[in-house]
Design brief:
alpha/beta; 2 domains; 11 strands; about 45% helix; binds dephospho coenzyme A
Amino acid sequence: MSTPLFDTLVARARALAPLSLAIVDAGERTVLESVALVLQEKIADPLLIGDPDRIRQIAREVGIPDSIPIIPASTTEESAREGVRLVAEGRAQGLMKGHLHSDTFLHPVLEGLREKKRLSHVFLAEIPTYGRLLAITDAAMNIAPDLMAKAEILQNAIDMAHTLGNPRPKAAVLSAVEMVNPLIASTIDAACLSKMADRGQISGAVVDGPLAFDNAISREAARTKEIESPVSGEADILLVPDLVSGNILAKDLEYLAGGTLAGVILGARVPVILTSRSDPPRSRFLSACLATLLFHGRMSARAAGGERP
Ligand code: COD
């Protein structure tokens, strides 16, 4: 599958110093295959956390050199705590979930690495039929966000777009319809979020909603329905109503529409990669590239004194 938009991101990540990336509970083949890929492509310098014997054995099988450090941890909980500690001590610039449950991984991250008020996940998708990278949020962390949580999730995605070089992304707040309907709560949230953007409570993007998926993605569909929206057909960000609908959307794009997905958790001290066991190695690799770009982008913004507080 050709991914010209992601290829540009990969080229930009390759030009940066490799990210020091801690892999939590790394002793599993698909996890270490992805590590081998990021190492080979010089995107990241991994720190492997987990059972040293198991990690060393699989690491050798997949071609990871013995020089790569292993930090021993005897349980998945200890692995996650070690990962957070490495970041807190400045030894890791990014964190990647290995072979453990999401909540075991996320609890210490929430406790120890929260920087912004809200941590949220964003998928970045390249779909052959859509000419721009599409950020879908939050389809993996916040289960049923309320209005203020949605505002924070949206702001995280907007900040990410800025870091990646899009100074004014277009964000569609999704629901099933484009009219406010009190029986569909997500339409009310979407209308409020649009107004919050008008009033500067959400900043740095053109925000419109409620929009149904077709009107967000296709100007033609919006025209047919006589909807005037500055976002229609040009959405960079899709804010989904909740984790379930967002997750179905993202996986639908991946499995039925030939989409390629990367993903990262935003709002922590460093980018956090939340992999799923079924993720192909390329998705994990692209997520590591995204994490590298976000880490270095933030460092540059900080150095220039321009980072959002
Ligand atoms: N950002 C900031 N703080 C948070 C967040 C967040 N996203 N989530 C919870 N908190 C804080 C709360 O304010 C509270 O102080 C504390 O953390 C505990 O909050 P709870 O009890 O509501 O949250 P938890 O601990 O029950 O769950 C947090 C998880 C992220 C683990 C939970 O939301 C979850 O399981 N999400 C889905 C993860 C998943 O399975 N993803 C993969 C499938 S797609």
